[in-house]
């Protein structure tokens, strides 16, 4: 009995690996699908899926594999001793898929290994596993939602800060542009401000030259007369 249960437990792990690590389109398969190991679709309740299908292109390949590994570890930790829904599911997968005939055959075979296996036990444990996985998913969703909300909050805070800084810089820019316009206006009017004074000085210089040259000319005439007309 113990040896049979050990073989069954080993089988459940192999079967679940086939289900959880089935290759996606475009990637190398983990195992070649044959009638003996072809993966079966995950069993889910009709009103709520345990795990939604992965949208194509929404997650990286490594991220999907990591999540599948975590699901596998959760399933492994949930597996109860003895034969129940898990072992029947796995055995049907080993037979080629969780079809009606394979599930019936698996149930019939496993009932010899564990006399406690009944329809009611399979239904109860199946509901337990589904409910447990759903709770794990809900808890994980809450955790990820909290992480998402935190990131969104950080984004909004950073956006608000940047918006404030942009507003301040725009105000500074308006002030600088106003000052720039004033300086340009002053630069354009600089000639009008200084030209009259410059012209006045130039006129004084010309007048000074004219006056001084006139006096010098008279003085030179006097000097010339003195040289010619005055004897010692």
Number of strands: 0
Helix content: over 70%
Straight-line N-to-C gap? 163 Å
Multimeric status of the protein: single chain
Low-confidence stretches: 1-12, 19-57
The fraction of residues assigned to DSSP E strands is under 5%
Main beta sheet:
none
Protein model, in words:
- By secondary structure, the chain is mostly helical.
- It folds into 2 domains: 2-161, no CATH class; 189-232.
- It contains 6 helices and no strands.
- The longest helix has 70 residues, at 119-188.
- Residues 1-12 and 19-57 have low confidence and may be disordered.
Q: What's the short story on this structure?
A:
The chain contains six helices and no strands.
Task: Lay out the secondary structure.
Layout: H1 2-20, H2 61-78, H3 85-94, H4 100-113, H5 119-188, H6 190-229
Helix pairs in contact: 1-2, 1-3, 2-5, 3-4
Structural key phrases:
232 residues; mainly alpha; 2 domains; 6 helices; 74% helix; disordered N terminus
């Amino acid at each position: 009995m113990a040896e049979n249960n050990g073989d069954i437990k080993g089988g459940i792990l192999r079967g679940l690996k086939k289900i959880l690590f089935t290759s996606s389109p475009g990637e190398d398969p983990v195992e070649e699908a044959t009638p003996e190991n072809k993966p079966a679709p995950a069993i889910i309740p009709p009103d709520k899926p345990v795990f939604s299908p992965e949208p194509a292109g929404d997650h990286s390949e490594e991220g999907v594999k990591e999540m599948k590994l975590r699901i596998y570890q959760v399933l492994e930790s949930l597996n109860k001793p003895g034969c129940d829904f898990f072992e029947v599911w796995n055995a049907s997968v080993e037979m080629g898929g969780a079809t009606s005939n394979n599930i019936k055959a698996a149930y019939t075979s496993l009932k010899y290994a564990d006399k406690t296996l009944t329809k009611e036990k399979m239904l109860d444990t199946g509901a337990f596993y589904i409910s447990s996985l759903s709770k794990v998913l809900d808890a994980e969703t809450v955790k990820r939602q909290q992480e998402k909300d935190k990131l969104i909050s950080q984004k909004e805070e950073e956006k608000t800060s940047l918006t404030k800084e942009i507003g301040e810089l725009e105000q500074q820019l308006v002030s600088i542009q106003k000052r720039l316009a004033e300086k340009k206006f002053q630069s354009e009017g600089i000639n009008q401000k200084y030209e009259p004074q410059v012209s006045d000085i130039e006129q004084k210089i010309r007048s000074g030259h004219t006056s001084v040259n006139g006096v010098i000319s008279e003085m030179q005439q006097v000097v010339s007369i003195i040289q010619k007309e005055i004897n010692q």
